[in-house]
Amino acid sequence: MSDFLKKGFLLGLGAAVSSKEKLDNKLKELVDKNELTRDQARTVMQNFLDKGQTTKDEWSTKQYEQTQAMANDLGIATKEDVNELRARITELESKLKLEE
Q: Measured between alpha carbons, how far is residue 40 from residues 26, 52, 95 in Å?
């Protein structure tokens, strides 16, 4: 992972942890004031965590797609390319053995 992407990811992670702690504190405050029930607070927190997971999954997908595009632009063989070549080599070796 490039240094720039790594720093961006860590910054986002730090913000998420800080936000989670702030949300948790705010929800506790609202429960203490009887403005929310514990179940409502749990639901809000779960929605927050679910949204975070969705965002993480989207980030991972975009990062994978960008990495694939970069590898393609640079002409770097992907794992799939190497596996396809291995399969073709195995097939050709089998055909050669049959001809012997």
A: 13, 18, 66
What would the pLDDT profile of 45-84 be if each residue is shown by its tens digit?
A: 888 888 888 888 888 888 889 888 888 889 888 888 899 9
Other CB atoms within 10 Å distance of the CB of residue 27: 20
Q: What residue segments make up the domains of the chain, in order of their start?
A: 3-99
Instruction: Determine the Cα–Cα distance for residues 100 and 98; give it in Å rounded to an integer.
Output: 6
Tokens of 99: 């001809």
SS3 (DSSP) at 98:
helix
First to last CA, the chain: 48
Q: 0.70 cut: is pTM over it?
A: no
DSSP secondary structure of 30-72? HHHTTSS-HHHHHHHHHHHHHHHHHHHHHHHHHHHHHHHHHHH
Q: Could you tell me which of 48, 23, 27 has the C-alpha nearest to residue 37?
A: 27
Q: How far apart are CA 76 and CA 95, in angstroms?
A: 29
